[in-house]
């Protein structure tokens, strides 16, 4: 089913995909999806559109004004549609497995229920140019933070966790000091990314984008002004 942000028109600007200067950031290595067997062929997950790389550097500079030796940790960036397909299929299997069900024995209703869960987290791997998966545009990035010791800053849930805890405001009303810290950490990440022009996925604390349909939709929602996306699918 089409999501509201997918109705945003795309006016492709043809800005190139460029490598992320990984030496300036922290990086999850090996790459999590390559480790699961995703094939990138002649592509690399460590690419983004040129202005998105620039904005990510601005966000890290902002972060380091407050926390001088913290860095942004890159989990994932550019994702070909074939990899998006691989990940939704992988997640389908995982969900079936954790529910104790065998994929070959699933009823149509069970399949549909599992797909609904998968698509709560993942975008549909559509090849229709009007509905590109966000990461296939080179404008979306999944990130977290590392502290001065190089340790992951605790956000209270793992990236790609299929649960309520992935919601950015999951811990907002918590009275427990530890949970309040998680929310505080998510806010540090959000504020530096937002100050650099990114929008955050409404259901995922780690997913940010700039210039794609979701970004345009969320920006428009804030300013009540029709905005188009400037980045469509990269072929
Ligand atoms: C699941 C997560 N890594 C992600 O990227 N989600 C968005 C919505 C996507 O699939 O584009
Ligand atoms: Zn993402």
Automatic annotation (TrEMBL):
InterPro entries in UniProt: A_A_dipeptidase, Zn_M74/Hedgehog-like
Keyword presence, Lipid biosynthesis: no
Annotated binding of Zn(2+), by residue: 135, 142, 207
Pfam family, one: Peptidase_M15
Domain of life (superkingdom): Bacteria
Keywords: Cell wall biogenesis/degradation, Dipeptidase, Hydrolase, Metal-binding, Metalloprotease, Protease, Zinc
Transmembrane segments: none
Site (Transition state stabilizer): 79
Active-site residue numbers: 204
Its EC number(s): 3.4.13.22
Reactions it catalyzes: D-alanyl-D-alanine + H2O = 2 D-alanine
Names of the cofactor(s): Zn(2+)
Alphabetized Gene3D superfamilies for the sequence: 3.30.1380.10
Keyword Lyase tagged: no
Record note on cofactor: Binds 1 zinc ion per subunit.
Function, as annotated: Catalyzes hydrolysis of the D-alanyl-D-alanine dipeptide.
PANTHER family per the UniProt record, alphabetical: D-ALANYL-D-ALANINE DIPEPTIDASE
Family note: Belongs to the peptidase M15D family.
Name of protein: D-alanyl-D-alanine dipeptidase
Organism: Gloeocapsopsis crepidinum LEGE 06123
